[in-house]
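Job type: complex structure
Entries:
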Amino acid sequence: MAAIEVRELTKTYGEVVGIESLSFSVGKGEVFGFLGPNGAGKTTTIRVLLGLLSPTAGSAEVLGADVTSESDLIEAKRRIGYLPADLGFDEDVTGRRVLDYFASIRGDERRAELLEIFTPPLDREIREYSSGNRQMLGVIQAFMHDPDLVIMDEPTSGLDPLKQERFNEFVRAERDRGTTVFFSSHVLSEVRRVCDRVGILREGELVAAEDVESLVDRGGKRVRVQVGGEGSGLGDVEGATDVRRLGDEHRFAYAGDYGTLLAHLASYDVVDVEIAEPPLEDVFMHYYGGSEDSDGEGNESDAGEESGRAPEPASEPAGGDADA
Amino acid sequence: MLEIVRYEAEKRLTGTLALAVGLGALAVFFVAFFPSFADVDMESYAEAFPPAFREAFGIEAIGTIEGFLAVEVYQFLWVLLLGLYVAYLGAGAIATDVERDRMDLLLSLPVSRSRVLGEKFLALAVPILVLNAVVPLAVYGGVIAVGESIDAVDLAMVHLLSIPYLLACAAIGLLLSTLVDRADVAQRAALAAVFALFLVDSISASAENLEWIGGISPTAYYDPSAILVDGSHDLGGAVVLLGATTALVVLASIRFRRADVGA
């Protein structure tokens, strides 16, 4: 039995389509990254999985429970943790009170252990919390009853890089102890670091659900070479695509094997070379119909066209007359 | 069970106690005024009010301590202000949590929606019970202090029978809380609804052939003047109010179970 099973799921709000005919499944013990830009339907999907929204068509199961059956879903929720994107806590109670409250309904056998990793100021009122502290409190409540499945909506928003790394490490450890983790994100690098498999949601439809490595492989390596001389024909090697030149630097995507590439480069006077995995942003753009110019970094060359031309002001600035 | 009631009631406790002290003090303050009314010709004072107003506040018997309390403390503070207050609280019970995204987390716990709604409603009973336990003591003390006396049973009944009335007002708010997405709209609608019902009852009472319309208002089933002045306890009215409360909570529950939360 899959931890999450979604079949032909559609959710519309009147005329507006949230998600359409979405199907995917998440296996037990898997970390599944649910990718897509804001507005793609990630949160809608998650809210259907939790029974907050009822599906317009299709079906969804979490831990074997049909999300439209309240009683089945309640049983399943004993073993589910949820970290929403917008964490709503009562502002005028302490973090400890919230945890006690949730614990009284759902249990908290792992609270102490989690509080060693995440350290929100439990005895302060939540109104005084920073967004990072709120998020940590959210993570603790989502995991403290030792759930089998944790659903997280944009979990690392609000965490500083150090806490983010700690969080990623924590998610990996959770996977190792068998917890299934489903999380949405629009930050691809974060998904890359912790997920076994990702699905990319585009305009309410899941475009791909495959493991991260194969997604990356499909995108090919990113090669940057600087050579002495012109370097003509440098990109003429089988497996190279998207060849371009930026100043002294030649760049291309490469999906062939290393031996062939190195043998080809050996015939040039190589000054500098870098072979890197593609940023997932590029892979991502591929699924969003991103065109050739999806180059995410170092494209200051485009800036030249507009330089020196400030936008026309709508009216004369500070002309001196102050008749107000 | 009842974890939600406990949490919600605990959150309200400070506010409830403050309100109990405030209303108790206000009641005592009103009672302290009573002796100075003794010199006034209360008959003509009562006559001076328009008939609808006399009806709304039961002004006829204002010259006695019972009539005075019924008008100044119970018709005004209890029926009108407290009725509005609990309707306002009820209207916030669901809609505020939905609006502030708190409902998402609450419903991620293994609890049914009807349990959430039912327990949130029960939590509203806490301020209602606390106020009805504290304020009569203040009133009784005040009456003794100004050298008057009042039937303790009638005083207890005026509070006891106000509980179904206030629960009904809270249930009106609760139903609106599940019907309207925005909490502030639900709250304003609840205030408007309870006030309108209060007016309907008072005005229809003085309009010929329209008395029956007043029957839709909860105020028709709880009359502090009748209890304090005439010593008549309308237990049937309390049953009607409890029945209406149950019906409103069930409707709210049906509505909330079907709703998309935070869509």
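Summary: The mean pLDDT of chain B is 90. Residues 3-37 of chain B form the longest helix (35 residues).
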